[in-house]
Write a structure and sequence with these properties.
The protein is of the alpha+beta class. 28% of the residues lie in helices and 25% in strands. It contains 18 helices and 27 strands. Strand 17 (413-420) and strand 18 (423-431) form a beta hairpin.
Length: 712
């Protein structure tokens, strides 16, 4: 039925009028599965710049690690893409007979990548520093190693974290000089006999960490060990038991005082590279002999570590680096000042972000979901927005390695995960078939006794539901692209119409299979649907396939075909085939036929839209319906065609005065044959091909309109 034209989204055209997300169902889902949990959600269209879904979006929520999106957004806004924190080595004193009498001054600017994160050996950067000194002909140093930590101010230990965080690898202390993520790996094996203490190793062992080993070997596979870390010194106490049949086990634990750890590691590198160090505090060392600068990784690598792999050390370091670079103070407060400046420059309210750190580990951090999606939307339009978005995780990548793995099109989303006790969060981007980008933020606070795995699954389910809703039946998009790509050798509009109309033969019939999806609440059926078609959607999709210049322009073509001005909404959809679609004259035109007659009808559009709670403000203009009377059309259909192959559109004229055409399809004219009709049949429940004369003989209608298609 031509009144049931269905919508498909197309990129790069005017924004939709009524984009929406039915968030009530999302809240109900959370309430049913996670009772007592506070849920916050915001969804925003980047194209429109408007929020299209909100649940408690203007309330404060603890963001957990999703706060990293603010840290990284401010960084990529202020810092150049080739920004690299430097570690400088200055050689001072004098050199005689391969001996430096003086000092090495090492100044750190917060590089967290002096580790095996990007290199095979955690000592790679330290060895490079030492080798630069050796290249000056130095094999002995008499004097001092001076570490300049002035780039950062404030405590090395982040504040406002839960106490247990400081004893975990993800809560390592932060300093302008660091080594191996400021952590060590403690590996242990059972002893030779039951009752023996376990065998323990430290990796890397630079003589800085001490292990008090009270871990006992017991029978079987039992393993129940515990550990404690001195709050000030890098002393780790192991206790509990390990079964004699256990192969081995390991833990990554933080050290105390990263500056002392760096010094010990640098001393280890000196020795390992053959430089003897003899400490002397009485040696003067004012003459500068050389200066070397080292950087382990650039800003974009930082962003990947922070947003994809959620590295807290990198986030905390970057926040302090921002403070030093932008606010002149390498501290958390300096970083917060830089972030407030960023928010103001992005026309966002800084008071909507209550920030206490750079990583999101502090439960004191608070954000408003609505403002978070606004920030993400502005970053999508930022000159460096592509780099920012690409630093986020996705299904199978980073912190999304095991999340949403059953998502049919994982490339449709990038996200940042967040978790601390009783808090789960998910924020990021979703791409839609109309070329829009959605920013989304979801928070679960106060999950209490609900299992963490269940909370995570609820967020993943809601996220995938949002992707599915805004990309209804994405497989149909892929199918259309495949059909178009497979037909690149078919040229000419008539041949392409013939080809694509034939390719969809056998497709099941379903009346009204499509709507405007999330872009209009009147009919939020799938945006594209090739699993079944009605007569109009069959016609539309074939014409779009035939006329599109590339597979990327399919939806642009469909939108132009279906909507006035290319604006997707129920109001602007071309519901009346002859009046709106063919009558527009852009893509089709009625063909004058011998013996045709005409009637004038006025389509009751005000009443039609009123029945769908839509106000129609246009004029109901009379339309001339030209058609070949049924008997004459049957006579024409029984004649053998003698011209070149061609494809026309056909419309069945309705008997009612309130409608122009009641059915449509393609009429195929092959040389030396009688014309055939390809159409989506409501009686046979599929797309099929029949002789046109045979079909018309079963109709009781005034007549038939024929129209030709125009490549536009």
């Amino acid at each position: 039925m031509n009144k049931l034209f269905k919508a498909v989204l197309l990129p790069f055209l005017a924004a939709p009028l009524f984009a929406h997300v039915n968030v009530a169902s999302y809240k109900s889902y959370v309430d049913s599965l996670l009772p007592g949990t506070t849920f916050g959600m915001s969804v925003r269209s980047v194209k429109m710049g408007k929020e299209i879904g909100n649940v408690n979006g203007n309330e404060f929520f603890t963001p957990a690690s999703t706060l990293k999106t603010l840290t990284t957004a401010a960084a990529i806004h202020f810092l150049p893409l080739d920004y690299e924190p430097k570690t400088e080595v200055t050689v001072l004193g004098n050199i005689e007979k391969n001996t430096l009498t003086g000092s090495l001054k090492i100044r750190g600017e917060g590089d967290p990548n002096f580790s095996a994160r990007y290199y095979d050996d955690p000592f790679y950067m330290l060895n490079a520093m030492v080798d630069s000194v050796r290249a000056m002909g130095i094999d002995t140093i008499v004097g001092r190693i001076d570490l300049d930590t002035s780039y950062y101010t404030g405590p090395w230990k982040a504040e406002n974290w839960r106490r247990n965080f400081y004893d975990s690898w993800y809560g390592a202390e932060i300093g302008p000089l660091g080594f191996n993520d400021n952590c060590v790996t403690i590996r242990f094996w059972p002893g030779y006999f039951r009752g023996d203490t376990a065998v323990v190793s430290i990796q890397p062992d630079v003589g800085y960490v001490k292990v008090i080993n009270n871990l006992k070997t017991v029978k079987g596979h039992k393993k129940k060990w515990v550990y404690g870390i001195d709050p000030v010194k890098s002393v780790i106490t192991l206790g509990g038991t390990i079964g004699e049949d256990v192969d081995s086990a390991s833990m990554v634990l933080p050290i105390r005082n990263p500056i002392g750890y760096f010094r010990a590691a640098f001393m280890y590198a000196l020795k390992n590279r053959g430089i003897v160090f003899k400490e002397s505090n009485s040696v003067a060392s004012e003459t500068e002999l050389g200066k070397f600068s080292f950087s382990a990784a650039p800003l974009l690598s930082f962003l990947d570590e922070i947003n994809q792999r959620s590295q807290n050390l990198h986030a905390e370091t970057l926040l302090r680096n921002l403070g030093a670079q932008i606010s002149g103070e390498g501290s958390v407060e300096g970083g917060r000042k830089a972030e407030r400046k960023f928010l103001l420059e992005m026309n966002l309210n800084p008071t909507d972000f209550d920030v206490w750190d750079g990583s999101g580990l502090s439960p004191e951090n608070k954000v408003k979901p609505s403002t978070v999606t606004k920030m993400l939307a502005k970053m999508a339009r930022h000159p460096n927005g592509e780099y920012y978005i690409n630093s986020f995780a996705s299904p199978g990548v980073g912190s999304g390695a095991k999340r949403m793995m059953n998502l049919e099109a994982p490339w449709l989303t990038r996200f940042k995960t967040g978790y601390i006790a009783e808090v789960h969060a998910l924020v990021g981007y979703i791409y839609t078939m109309d070329g829009d980008t959605l920013t989304a933020a979801m928070y679960l606070n106060g999950t209490n006794t609900n299992p963490d795995c269940k909370s995570k699954d609820v967020l993943d389910t809601l996220w995938m539901r949002l992707i599915g809703y805004t990309n209804n039946n994405y497989n149909s998009l892929l199918k259309m692209k495949t059909l178009w790509l497979d037909a690149q050798g078919v040229s000419g509009l008539n041949k392409r119409l013939d080809h694509f109309s034939k390719m969809l033969l056998g497709t099941p019939y379903k009346l009204g299979p499509m709507g405007e999806g999330h872009l209009d609440p009147v009919e939020d059926k799938p945006l594209v649907y090739l699993d079944s078609v009605d007569c109009v959607t069959y016609l539309e999709q074939v014409v779009a396939l035939a006329m599109s210049k590339s597979e990327k322009s399919l939806y642009r073509q469909l939108q132009r075909l279906r909507y006035k001005g290319g604006k997707v909404s129920y109001l602007t959809r071309k519901h009346y085939l002859l009046d709106d679609w063919v009558g527009e004259g852009k893509y089709a035109k009625v063909i004058p036929m011998e013996g045709e007659v005409s009637v004038t009808r006025t389509m009751p559009k005000k009443e039609f839209f009123k029945n769908h709670n839509v106000k129609y403000t246009g004029k109901e203009t009379p339309v001339k319906v030209r058609y070949v009377p049924l008997e004459k059309a049957i006579e024409m259909a029984n004649k053998t065609y003698k011209g070149a192959m061609k494809v026309l559109g056909m419309g069945i004229v309705g008997s009612s005065e309130n409608i122009d055409l009641t059915h449509t399809g393609f009429v195929i004219y092959y040389p030396g044959q009688k014309p055939v009709l390809r159409h989506a049949s409501s009686q046979k429940k599929q797309v099929l091909e029949v002789p046109l004369a045979e079909y018309l003989q079963t109709r009781k209608v005034p007549g038939v309109t024929f129209f030709k298609f125009i490549q536009h």
